[in-house]
């Protein structure tokens, strides 16, 4: 069964910490995405990548960066975590043929 | 610009009731359309899709028809179950080579026994 795996389901971090959220897909997909999900706001795109070492900003990139050194792995980095980054973070991937996204199970991050 | 508008929730129904969740979109050309479902504590799962006008997507008793003339993709189910309680997201993939999906804000459905 094809999968997108996010390394943690729950994380608690302190304000100012550098936080890494990892996402790995086993479908050889070219495209990978990071979203955050907040009540009343739906899904908002943070960053996405069409290829290795390639990244593009989404709608809310401020305070985040990403890394894609290998095709299967797409990391989201919070350079200095703040309380307003407390959220559910969802990773997704897609490939050619447009069958839509495959999502990971999400990481619920709490910044205290 | 490209956008998706879906009916505000939450929606509460009794088991075996009929469900409709409205979704309309704004896009140029002929986008592909999707419904995703998110069960409590989980990520989103693709529920159904349609890639051209008049296509009907269906899965697990849910259906949605791509209506180009009304730019709509309403989700329906004839008889809901408690296990259908979830958040439902409508989305479209704008035509023109962009791989980014545009999502609605989600509609929370609760089905009571």
Overview of this protein structure:
The complex is a heterodimer of chains A (112) and B (113). Helix content of chain A is 0%, strand content 53%. In chain A, strands 2, 5, 6, 7, 10, 11 and 12 form a 7-stranded mixed sheet that branches. A 3-stranded antiparallel sheet of chain A has the order 3-9-8, with no helix packed on it. With 112 residues, chain A is an all-beta fold. Chain B has 113 residues and is an all-beta fold. Chain B has no helices and 12 strands. In chain B, the strands form 3 sheets. In chain B, strands 2, 5, 6, 10, 11 and 12 form a 6-stranded mixed sheet that branches. A 4-stranded antiparallel sheet of chain B has the order 3-9-8-7, with no helix packed on it. In chain B, a hairpin with a 2-residue loop joins strand 7 (56-59) and strand 8 (62-65). The mean pLDDT of chain B is 91.
Keywords, separated by commas or semicolons:
heterodimer; A: 112 residues; mainly beta; 53% strand; B: 113 residues; six-stranded mixed beta sheet; four-stranded antiparallel beta sheet; 0% helix; 50% strand; globular
């Amino acid at each position: 069964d094809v999968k997108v795996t996010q390394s943690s389901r729950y994380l608690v971090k302190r304000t100012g910490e550098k936080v890494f959220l990892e996402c790995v897909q086993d479908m050889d997909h070219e495209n990978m995405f990071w979203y955050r999900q907040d009540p009343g706001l739906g899904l908002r795109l943070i960053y996405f990548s069409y290829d290795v070492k390639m990244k593009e900003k989404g709608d809310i990139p401020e305070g985040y960066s990403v890394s894609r050194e290998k095709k299967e792995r797409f990391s989201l980095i919070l350079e200095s975590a703040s309380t307003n980054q407390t959220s559910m973070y969802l990773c997704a991937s897609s490939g050619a043929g447009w069958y839509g996204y495959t999502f990971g199970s999400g990481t619920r991050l709490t910044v205290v | 610009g490209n956008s998706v508008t879906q009916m505000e929730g939450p929606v509460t129904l009794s088991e075996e009731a009929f469900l409709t969740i409205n979704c309309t979109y704004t896009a140029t050309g002929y986008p592909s359309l999707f419904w995703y479902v998110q069960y409590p504590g989980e990520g989103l799962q693709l529920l159904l899709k349609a890639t051209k006008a008049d296509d009907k997507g269906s899965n697990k008793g849910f259906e949605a028809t791509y209506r180009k003339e009304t730019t709509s993709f309403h989700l329906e189910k004839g008889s809901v179950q408690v296990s259908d309680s979830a958040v439902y997201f409508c989305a479209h993939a704008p035509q023109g080579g962009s791989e980014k999906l545009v999502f609605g804000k989600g509609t929370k459905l609760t089905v009571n026994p």
